[in-house]
Amino acid sequence: MMNKINRVAIVGGTHGNEFTGAYLIQKFAQFPKLITRPSFETVTLLANPKAFAAGRRYIDQDLNRCFLQQKLQDPTLGSYEELRAKSIQNMLLSNRDKQVDFILDLHSTTSNMGLTIILVNSHPFNLKLAAYLSHVNPLVKIYRCSFSSVVENPFLNSLCELGFAIEVGPIAQGILKADLFQQTEELVHQVLDYLERFNEGKILSTGETLSVYHHLSSIDYPKQEDGSILGMIHPQLQDRDYEPLSPGEPMFLTFEGKTLVYEGKSTVWPIFINEAAYYEKLIAMCLTQKQQINL
Amino acid sequence: MMNKINRVAIVGGTHGNEFTGAYLIQKFAQFPKLITRPSFETVTLLANPKAFAAGRRYIDQDLNRCFLQQKLQDPTLGSYEELRAKSIQNMLLSNRDKQVDFILDLHSTTSNMGLTIILVNSHPFNLKLAAYLSHVNPLVKIYRCSFSSVVENPFLNSLCELGFAIEVGPIAQGILKADLFQQTEELVHQVLDYLERFNEGKILSTGETLSVYHHLSSIDYPKQEDGSILGMIHPQLQDRDYEPLSPGEPMFLTFEGKTLVYEGKSTVWPIFINEAAYYEKLIAMCLTQKQQINL
Predict the structure, then answer these.
(1) Residue B96, annotated as binding a ligand
(2) Domain-by-domain residue ranges, chain A?
(3) Strand A209-219 to strand A140-144: parallel, antiparallel, or no bridges (unpaired)?
(4) For residues B196 and B267, what is the distance between their CA atoms, to the nearest angstrom?
(5) Are the Cβ atoms of B235 and A172 closer than 8 angstroms?
(6) Is residue B61 less than 8 Å (CB to CB) from chain A?
């Protein structure tokens, strides 16, 4: 663990139709004083400008699945997003004097996820910062991805041990909502202020027990044999991200009006319920296990 | 005015990422008895299958702006949607024995529009049907577009004097919401049942005064000189479609936090507030005038 954060990257528009982060980046680029702190430098990056201009998640493939080390080192890969991932790695890491120590990647979701911090590792620094944020802001939830090592992590955040993605919702793709824009901006400031206090040696332990939602599995929509979906998220489950779901409770409603229940053996906490971009990934929701961690 | 409706077309997926209509069409195609009525034939049409498969509004251009008579007759136009528009005209109108008398085109919106009927003309039959639907269902609102003649109407509904589009929301692009799916399906059944009673000569006057929201103008987002937006729908206006907006009331919030107010001279009723697909059309909302019509 380093003693000081020297350089922070705030990234938006990794998915081109997630406007909250993309426009926040543009605001920060226009008014850099907002993200300036005395003890470190902050840079902004609009990660997928071509997809943002097109108002689409991506041009050729999901940029936030292009950061596997193996892919970044493969010279034969040449889709727009594969090239862009290499270019981003180069921008953020190549120059030893300008290497970033912390990456904040701003996303949005159609799911009712509030302000979710997506941890791709369990670095104590990230956990402490996440604990602090959830302590000062009740909208903040903490989701821990399933990747067991950096090597298998394809997210942009894999470029750097410190930092995480922020996933805000619910919001449709391709729009801005002022309240969510302001909440996200406030969260960015809370992160930067925390990093500043860390550099000043002024971090106080929050002494908190932290609730973390650990990824268990993902669930696909009910499907016909030809692969087309035959049902929707059940109205009783829609918008209930982070709430407990017990065996036997409604999960899907088929187009014919039949209720399909959750058939697992124990209570789970679903998130990413009805995320638009996950239909093509065969994910209707992710199931998590709520756990208390003592820091 | 004809004495009998012989053939009805229910259209969905005119915009490929508006899933409610597209999946309703698939359900009706799979279970045709649902839309069968004794006195007329009902056909379904997935209008833009290529855009639906891609999960995008359109491939080359907005299909629902390709139905100007002048464009349909121009043999030099050849984008995917221009060709598709000609093909749809051919499917629905070319065979004199199989010509449709009524078109219902199913759309969805990220705006809080409830179940909106979009009238592209003021045909008494359409007005009476709209009055009936708003009478039996309080979620139904009636919006009258600005086109003064069929000739300037580029919508799919311009193919047929009778019928209208249904615009349901709020819902993100690329997802299904069970409650809105069911409400839309119920509205389709109410339309078909009304047409059946019309053919049976059993339409009773509702004797109602009808509220119609007449299009006045559209308002763009506040912009910088380079054309990029510099603000969002004001939180106090978000989701307040069909509610009155008076001069001096908040309309936009700039990224810098400044409130911009409505500067018109009289009260208006905004709709299509923050519709995702209208950012590129330079429309932040449409302003309407609420009017009472006696049928």
Answers:
(1) no
(2) 7-207, 216-286
(3) parallel
(4) 40
(5) no
(6) no
Is A172 touching B (CB cutoff 8 A)? yes
Question: Beta strand pairing status for A114-119 and A209-219?
Answer: unpaired
Q: How far is CA B287 from CA A175, B115, B244, B246, in A?
A: 19, 18, 10, 11
Q: What is the phi-psi region of residue B13: left when phi exceeds 0, alpha when psi lies from -120 to 50, beta otherwise?
A: left
Contacts across the A-B interface (CB distance below 8 Å): 89
CB contact under 8 A, B110 and A174: yes
At residue A34, the pLDDT reads 98
Cα–Cα distance measured from residue B240 to residue B246, given in angstroms and rounded to the nearest whole number: 13
Q: Which residues of A are annotated as a binding site for Zn(2+)?
A: 15, 18, 107
**Edge to edge, what strands does the sheet with B231-233 contain?**
B231-233, B250-254, B259-261
Q: How far is B68 from B152, CA to CA, in rounded Å?
A: 6
Instruction: Provide the CATH topology of domain A7-207.
Output: Aminopeptidase (3.40.630)
Type and span of the H or E element at B199? helix B178-199
Q: Which amino acid is at B279?
A: Y
The per-residue pLDDT for range A104-146, each reduced to its tens digit, is: 999 999 999 999 999 999 999 999 999 999 999 989 999 999 7
Selected from 3.40.50.740, 3.40.1160.10, 3.40.50.720, 2.20.25.160, the CATH number assigned to the domain covering B216-286 reads 2.20.25.160
The pTM (predicted TM-score) of the whole model is: 0.95
Of B172, B181, B229, the CB nearest to A172: B172
pLDDT at B209: 81
- Interhelix angle A19-30/A178-199, nearest 10 degrees: 60
What whole-number distance in Å separates Cα of residue B197 and Cα of residue B202?
5
How do beta strands A231-233 and A250-254 pair? antiparallel
Query: Over the stretch B30-88, which tens digit does the pLDDT of each residue have?
Result: 999 999 999 999 999 999 999 999 999 999 999 999 999 999 999 999 999 999 999 99
For B96, phi then psi, to 5°, come to -55, -35
Q: Please say whether the beta carbons of B65 and B165 come within 8 A.
A: no
* Exposed/middle/buried for residue A163 (C-beta within 10 Å: 0-12, 13-18, 19+): buried
Residues 250-269 in B contacting A (C-alpha not used; CB under 8 Å)? 253, 255-256
At residue B95, the pLDDT reads 77
Q: Which stretches in chain B have pLDDT values below 50? A: none
CA A32 to mean position of chain CA atoms:
23
Nearest CA in chain B to A170: B172
Hey, are the CB atoms on B179 and A238 less than 8 Å from each other? yes
| Whether the predicted interface score ipTM is above 0.90 | yes
Task: Assess whether pLDDT exceeds 60 at residue A1.
Answer: no
- Amino acid A2: pLDDT: 63
Per-residue pLDDT of A46-94, as tens digits, reads 999 999 999 999 999 999 999 999 999 999 999 999 999 999 999 999 8
Distance from CA of A231 to the nearest CA of B (A): 9
